[in-house]
Amino acid sequence: MASAQSSGGGTELGQFLRARRTQTRPDQVGLTVGPGLRRTPGLRREELATLAGMSIDYYVRMERGKETRPSPAVLDALARALRLDDAEHQHLRELAARAARYSPEPPPPPSRTVRPHLKLVLEALRPSPAYIISRSMDLLAWNPGGLALYAGLADWPATQRNLARYFFLHPTARTLFPDWDELVRGCVARLRSLAGTAPDAPDLTHLVGELLLKSPDFAKLWERYDVVGRKRIQKTFHHPQVGVLTLSGQSMNLEGTPGQRLGVYTAEPGTPDHDAMLLLDAIAPEPARHRDMTSEQQPHSQRRP
User: Fold this and answer.
1) Distance between CA atoms of residues 236 and 34, nearest Å
2) CA nearest 92: which of 171, 19, 3, 8?
């Protein structure tokens, strides 16, 4: 099982290369496989080294986290050999850059304080469900529909409300989303990409550590080290209170608040989906004057027992 933390900057780089190598079939890169059973899933180390035009010893050092300063030409050669897409190629460069400047002291987590005018924005977006999340997917602020849309999430204490935790650990999530398998693959890819360049950040390591222990599905996806997830504009919810509704989703980074994102769902007026959205907003409890989860009020997953 993959660890949520790393012992050095080269470790994440090596883990990413190994994951991509073992998931790349020889026929995908033009190699002919002879008869007989292959013990190695995907490409062998020597096959990848040959495709990338480097010595096997050098590649092995990279995969083991002992070579932390590969040149841009080496990274580009590996990206071509592994058929990485643009996002994966960029992630490889970011991992290498981090490995070269690795510091054992993790940077402080981003601010969790939601500015007052952003709460007014959430209220102004009603009846569209809307919320603000942290980089690790903690729910920081919401309007009534934004919380009620994720059925059952309101039953958890505010400090435990995290969308990744909800997807994997809440019993309602699998029935709420008809495409749950695809949804969670994208969720893990997002966290994997973020954790690859900030593997020691407490807000990420605590969440990932919890999900690795509690969810075998999360652990399997985490081991794959996918960093690109398919994003759908529309998302269907099988909601226990308002029925089936399909909404268009949009998320955006918030200016001046690094790590915070605004998510909002909309539906075309006059459609059954819009009617269901109106009903959800009408029956959802009005939010209490909840306090933001600042560094003094950490999420449950970051608290020590």
Assistant:
1) 45
2) 19
